[in-house]
Design goal:
Elements (H helix, E strand, L loop, with lengths): L6 E3 H12 L5 H9 L5 E2 L6 E3 H23 L14 H4 L15 H8 L17 E4 L6 H9 L2 E6 L2 H11 L4 H20 L3 H19 L4 H7 L5 H22 L12 H4 L3 H15 L4 H17 L19 E3 L4 E3 L6 H19 L7 E5 L7 H8 L1 H10 L1 E6 L14 H7 L18 H19 L2 E11 L6 H7 L2 E10 L12 E9 L1
Parallel strand pairs: 4-5, 4-9, 5-8, 9-10
Antiparallel strand pairs: 1-3, 2-3, 6-7, 10-12, 11-12
The structure holds S-adenosylmethionine.
Amino acid sequence: MIKNSELFSIKEASAWATEYLGKNVTTANISYLVNYGKVSKVGENGSTQVVKEELVGYYSNYKSQREIEWREKLGEDLNWALSFENLKESETTKHVNRLHPYKGKFIPQLVEYFLDSHIDKFKRDIYFKKEDIVLDPFCGSGTTLVESNELGINAIGIDVSVFNTLISNCKVSKHDIKLLNLEINRISKLLNDFVVNSHTLDFEQELLYELSIFNNKYFPVPDFKYQVQRKVIDGKKYGEEKANEFLPTYYKLVDKYNIELLQPNNNSFLEKWFIKHIRREIDFVFEEIKKVEDKKTKKILSIILSRTMRSCRATTHADLATLKDPIITTYYCSKHGKICKPLFSILKWWNLYSKDTIKRLNEFDSIRTQTTQICLTGDSRQIDIFNELEKKDKEFAQIVRNRKINGIFSSPPYVGLIDYHEQHAYSYDLFGFERKDDLEIGPLYKGQGKAAQESYVDGISDVLINCKKYFADDYNVLLVSNDKYNLYPRIAERSGMKIVNQYKRPVLNRTEKDKGAYSEIIFHLKEK
Ligand SMILES: C[S@@+](CC[C@H](N)C(=O)[O-])C[C@H]1O[C@@H](n2cnc3c(N)ncnc32)[C@H](O)[C@@H]1O
């Protein structure tokens, strides 16, 4: 098929692509292209090669087309430097920023750009300096708080969802890592014994063995994906046929090992979205966490359990971000191009996330500054910031009263895009936290119609009006938003503020499946 073409080893391809794109392309990135059929594979493992022509084809599209297309769609005033396209994923999820998944968080480098003390041809002023106090009234998973700490700035966060407050405070709190390690070891050992005593491990082992035989035969790597890419095979149709073919083998093993798939009821998220064995293990770990006396340790353990639960929901690999239907059988996985199975035990993920959490907390400890960051739970339209702060940290509350807040850096919810409580429904169910969905501004469930837009304008303005009471003179408000309905000029007006500048940035690193052209504006507002 491929004759007279220049061939690259994986290593050579990574060096070539790095130079060509002017950004780091690892050998793992190239292997990904091969495994996912984006470029064809020549030779076998160990001596795998790729065709240069195909690599050029792939990357030239990638390099120029995207910026041109996006500028056409989003406007010439797009500030490409704010795309942070050269950053690796490990940098955008550095240390505690990846303690728990959260749909809708911004990348830390964007926060850093606006909070730090550099200036450039776009950012001509410094908005916050060391020891200032910054407010994020839509704190989410706490990115502003974490970045503030790194930069030596104090910060207050507010979020209406108590689970988001928990994530944020866990990220910035100083933990007793030795104690945390002890508790993790204790619980992991008990969980391991619990799992060994059930049939799930033997069942999974046999199931994986059967699956590997089946997948090797019908979904050879990388040929299958390559043929799907080139449309020689209709991946979905073929995959679903084969998935049906495998089902009798699956059910035979389910019977053999007495595996219980469904829970007796499916009224709550916990009952509907977890296979019975997984649910038992979750409850088991939760009971052990309840026995921990130290409050902060208990909280961070809950975050590890919650992250584990999220990875163990009965869904396909492709639908982790947007759940469709509970999956309790083997299925064709469009992401991996083969038959995959649901999970039957949380053990692997619990162990992985426990280790990862300790590593991330240690990393953050090594760069942490002696400043204060606290997230409060409440509705930012009404919360009494001084009083609520007083309940958490008297000394810091006094400092804030004296010095006042220097401004806001925040990304408010957008109109009708995400239900922030619902995305962590599993944790609300398990931990029994009170939900305040009706206080969310601009939730998905209220849609994007005229009424939703009006109530959004009122909601965001009410937040700004409330927060202004706590501001120092000459404050700066920076709001990241995808303002597709052009509501921010009205929001500014209604809040007694004026928009003094707008930064338009392309959003490239979207975690969700929709990778279309998308931009955000960072509005800079000041007192009118
Ligand atoms: C876009 S997210 C913020 C994400 C955050 N920048 C991050 O990096 O994780 C918006 C947040 O606003 C919160 N929110 C919505 N309505 C609120 C209200 N009335 N008061 C306080 N927070 C609210 C949501 O719960 C959500 O966490």
